[in-house]
Amino acid sequence: MSSRGSLVARFCFQRLHILIDSLKIEDLNRIKIGNEYDVQRILYSLIKPLFPEARLEVTVDAGYRPVRYDIFIDEYDLAIEVKCTRANMTERTLNEELGSDSFHYKVEHLFLFIYDDKRIITNADAFKRSFTKEKGLHDKNIDTYIAQPIIL
């Protein structure tokens, strides 16, 4: 995807990789991610210095009912949906939630960030491909990033 919003999203997540790769084991042991809101706050703290106009939990009217963008950058018409897997979540449930979000979010660029803490996604590459879409063929660009923790 060559659009400006997709480039912004990719830049954000490349920065995230740099941060993660630079952490030492002692640092990683101090970071506790208990739920989706923890992931959202970490991601937001990385994005906010680069994009000061980024906002958390923006509610918009989607026609049928309001939807809430986890992180929204108005200048780029870009929403970031954050998901964190849970012990009682199935891959099918995650798929359905992301499908609903992808359909209802009325933005030009949607970035799906999935922290698969419980490793419920059995084939991350296929899962990512199933959600990644280009605007020419669809009503929005959708880019997907899946982070599955590495057991050290």
Q: Which CATH C-level class is it?
A: Alpha Beta
Q: CATH fold name, please?
A: Trna Endonuclease, Chain: A, domain 1
Structural class: alpha/beta
CATH architecture: 3-Layer(aba) Sandwich
Question: What order do the strands of the largest sheet run in, or round the barrel if closed?
Answer: 1-2-3-4-5
**% residues in beta strands:** 15-25%
Measured between the Cα atoms of the first and last residue, the distance is 34 Å
Q: Work out the helicity level.
A: 25-40%
Tally of helical segments: 5
Uncertain stretches of 5 or more adjacent residues: none
Mean pLDDT: 83
What general outline do the C-alpha atoms trace? globular
If you had to describe this structure to a student in words, what would you say it looks like?
There is one protein chain. With 152 residues, this protein is α/β, with parallel strands linked by helices. It has a single domain, classed as Trna Endonuclease, Chain: A, domain 1 (3-Layer(aba) Sandwich), CATH 3.40.1350. The chain is built from 5 helices and 5 strands; from the N terminus they run αααβββαβαβ. Strands 1-2-3-4-5 form a 5-stranded mixed beta sheet, sandwiched between helices. The protein starts with a helix and ends in a 5-residue tail after the last strand. The model has no long low-confidence stretch (mean pLDDT 83).
